[in-house]
Specification:
Blueprint (H helix, E strand, L loop, with lengths): L1 E3 L2 E5 L5 E6 L1 H7 L9 E5 L5 E6 L5 E3 L10 E4 L3 E7 L7 H13 L3 E7 L19 H5 L3 E4 L8 H8 L3 E5 L6 H8 L25 E6 L2 E5 L13 H6 L2 H7 L16 H8 L4 H16 L2
Parallel strand pairs: 3-5, 8-9, 8-11, 9-10, 11-13
Antiparallel strand pairs: 1-2, 2-3, 4-5, 6-7, 12-13
The structure holds guanosine-5'-diphosphate and zinc ion.
Guanosine-5'-diphosphate binds next to helix 5.
């Protein structure tokens, strides 16, 4: 479903798209907004127009996390995974952004997948398979799957396609890494604009993250959520944030205090793991930055 200026564009089972209005009662009945990705029931009225008459249960959602104290703001409903796209070079990987997006995925209980594009720019490319740059080892160690692709040379696209079939995926990452190029190669006819490295937008509580959902075929959808990478993780519970770094979870069980946020507490096993080298400094630094951000919003 796509929502444009109060009109709900709904894809029917047969693939047909209908423009619908929303029956006033629906919002009241379920007590929440209808979001992109929601499954809805549509009724046809006598005058031939269509309206959304019911909203079905969601199995997941990507939302501005922790905003439960206010109104939950669902960006995309029924999402399965967040695909974090980075480039081997041009631009070089922004690890704090990767860590932010993976934490956002974890906080929403969604799978996180890392795609490392522009493999053709790696040293030694294009001959032979591209090795994973060592800075990405911590992600593999934390349990994330990493796909190495080149939209330019068509490398790794089949593996990526397999991960997208039958699922709703959100693509995010800095501009210029090749998200549009990857999606255009996978979904001919989609024709997303391929641009040059763009300008950074401000981060903030009111950053709007509009979403549109594109049918990928084979039962999959790709959500375009521009600005997601700049979404501030305000209002996030610090304890939940610690849990959103998978490699912290084991050590965290050994922390002296159950409510340890792994900052300066005595007997913190996460910091011990950092000192022992089993937690990567870059991951811990990102955690610290996100923790400060989470506290800022409280
Ligand atoms: P987006 O901002 O993440 O959507 O990135 P785009 O798809 O607009 O691509 C940004 C630039 O990178 C364009 O000039 C693309 O042609 C280029 N690009 C995309 N994928 C690759 C790739 O695999 N290898 C190389 N060398 N360039 C690529
Ligand atoms: Zn701790």
């Amino acid at each position: 479903m796509r929502i444009v200026a109060g009109t709900y564009h709904v894809e029917m089972d047969g693939g047909e798209w209908l423009e619908c209005s929303l029956r006033g009662r629906v919002k009241q009945k379920v007590g929440r907004q209808v979001s992109v990705g929601d499954l809805v029931r549509v009724e046809r009225l006598d005058d031939g127009s269509c309206r959304v008459s019911d909203l079905l249960e969601r199995h997941s959602a990507l939302s501005r996390h922790g905003v439960v104290r206010r109104r939950e703001q669902v960006i995309v409903a029924n999402v399965d995974q967040v695909v974090t796209v980075a480039a081997i070079a041009a631009p070089s990987p922004d690890f704090s952004m990767i860590n932010r997006l993976l934490a956002l995925a974890e906080l929403n209980e969604l799978d996180g997948l890392v795609v490392l594009n522009k493999a053709d720019l790696a040293a030694g490319a294009p001959d032979g398979p591209t090795a994973l740059p060592s800075e990405f080892e911590p992600y593999r160690a934390a349990g994330y799957e990493i796909l190495i692709t080149s939209a330019k040379r068509g490398l790794g696209l089949e593996e990526l396609r397999e991960r997208l079939i039958g699922r709703i995926s959100v693509f995010s990452g800095p501009s210029g890494v090749g998200k549009s190029s990857l999606l255009n190669s996978l979904m001919p006819g989609l024709d997303l604009r391929v641009g040059e490295v763009g300008r950074r937008k401000g981060r903030g509580r009111h950053t709007t993250v509009a979403a549109a959902l594109y049918p990928f075929g084979e039962g999959g959808y790709v959500a375009d959520t521009p600005g997601l990478q700049y979404l501030a993780l305000w209002d996030v519970d610090p304890l939940a944030l610690g849990q959103s770094f998978p490699e912290f979870r084991g050590p965290a069980e050994e922390c002296r205090f159950a409510d340890c946020i792994h900052r300066a507490e005595p007997g913190c096993a996460v910091r011990e793991a950092l000192e022992a080298g089993t937690i990567a400094p870059s991951r811990y630094e990102s955690y610290q930055a996100l923790l400060r951000e989470a506290e800022e919003g409280r």
